[in-house]
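User: Could you check the structure of this?
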Amino acid sequence: MEDKGQGTREQPWLLKTPSGSSDYQMYRDEAVDPPALVCQVGKTQLRYHLRAIDDLHTMLKEHGEWMPLGSADEQKPAAEGTVEAWGRSPGNPVGGWYGMKKGLRGRIGMYLPPLLEALGLAEVEHGPRNNRMRAL
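Assistant: Sure, the predicted structure tokens are below.
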């Protein structure tokens, strides 16, 4: 596997959206409370609870089959039964949004799946749209 980064600020993971249309970087920031997963997309920085990696993997393993990604901005509703809907659900392990920056809390269904794939935790489809993922 080519070097995708180490997940640090100095050596972030170098990723592409599921459709392959955009590049972005992610890294762990364990010095903040709660620990964060920082996602840099151009000049925009999103932050998610760091535990989203393990929580999403656990949920996908329990789900047991392919799950639609359903990426959506915070201001738009997430389709039921998608990774995006899970990432905002009061029933998830953090009791709501995994996104930590008000106004930029969505898109977990866009930015987390390629990271889980790079970490060897999931398989992700890479079509132009309507992609799905499943746990490995």
